Amino acid sequence: MARRARIIIIGAGIGGLAAAAALRQRGFEVALHEREAALGEVGAGLQLGPNAVKVLRGLGVEETIRRTACQPENWVSLKWDDATLRFRETLLGGRDAEYGAPYLTAHRADLHAALLSLVPESLVRLGARCIGVANTAAGAVARFADGSEAEGDVVIGADGVRSVVREALFGGDAPQFTGQVCWRAMLPIEAVPTDLGPGGSVRVERHEYVGWLGPTGHVICYPIRGGRIYNIFAGLVAQDWAKEGWSAPSTPEAMLDAYAGWNDALLGMFRMASEVFKWGIHDRDPLPSWIRGRIALLGDAAHPMMPTLAQGAAISLEDGAALARTLAQHTDLDAGLAAYDRERAPRAGRVQLQARTQFENNRKVPAPPPTDRGWIFAHDATTGMTSGGAAA
After folding, report:
1. Residues near 134 by Cβ (< 8 Å), separated by ≥ 6?
2. Which of 29, 315, 337, 391 is the most exposed place for a label (fewest CB within 10 A)?
């Protein structure tokens, strides 16, 4: 096995760190290069489906994540104006055992920190802005803005939605604005109202997963940080948009203006937010292949996707586990990368397209039930198999 190969990873986000941890676990030499001067994640919640949790289990950090994550039991849907109950159902239909892991909600920074704990600080170079990559006779090389280079047997581009590595391999693309802008915010759980609906007729528990559905948008809310923090994701149809990514600063006032006329309890929560971020949702077609020679893509660089299936982080975690496994299973690095490409590009592409379909469905009123995600949750990227034992 090519376990002593040197793998250069560009980007120390969730996907890059997961790949580094999984590769080290299988005996590879790893070096990460991160453009930011300090490591960290913008504060926001995320959802970890069973497929993501199985990767964290394989890396040995499932219990670490579960100490701060939450496991909402119910999904509650409310009408946008009067908070009438549309439906309440079990979030995963009580089928955790079928999928092999729970469905969790967590703080993005907690996930990032857990993954970072698996990678020695000495392996992460900060302030390293990649400006290009190239294949070489012996492997591949990454070049940086300060004039330095990093050579390895393989270079992995895990450098996010505006990936320099992706552009170097496949040229620039033209992401399409979807006509929806979104906000993220968090507030103390004590600020969340529980008696909603006409005359307080709808009781909503703070540990439930709550969606508000309106004619021009939706708001998703769920607890994180052991139930101490409430995460808010608000999407709205709009003609203008913030820059791609999700770290553009905004304000509670901007959210209030955008959602004027929505339920007073919801707007009251918006007023309690102290830090708000805004971004425009863009869409891209799936790439048929993620590799060129000894250079490969991973995470958002390979499959930027709309947030409608809450699978962006999960599929990036899967990528890291699958990359390490396929490279370890082959004595030849080129064969290992080809196996990674054959496995990951079709699966991630299918998730991208399903997220697009769900996004279009969500624009209809009333929205239909969520597109089935069972085939996504059942997958275990640490083995490459579904929970039923068939290859994914």
Report:
1. 140, 141, 143, 168, 295
2. 391
Residue 175 scores a pLDDT above 80? no
Contact 183, 232 (CB under 8 A): yes
The answer to whether 222 is a known catalytic residue is yes
Place of tokens 């920074």: 109
Contact residues for 1 (Cβ-Cβ < 8 A; gap 6+): 27, 328, 329, 330, 331
Q: How far apart are the first and last CA of the chain?
A: 24
Residue with tokens 């399903």: 354
Q: How many CA atoms lie within 13 A of 176 on its CB side?
A: 6
Beta carbons of 340 and 12 less than 8 angstroms apart: no
Backbone φ, ψ for residue 154 (5° rounding): -145, 140
Report pLDDT digits (tens) over 90-119.
Answer: 887 666 778 999 999 999 999 999 999 999
Q: What is the pTM of this model?
A: 0.94
Cα dihedral sign, 286-337-136-125 = positive
**Catalytically annotated residue among 99, 103, 209, 222:** 222
Instruction: State both tokens at 279.
Output: 């971004």
Residues 6 or more apart whose Cβ sits within 8 Å of residue 271: 252, 256
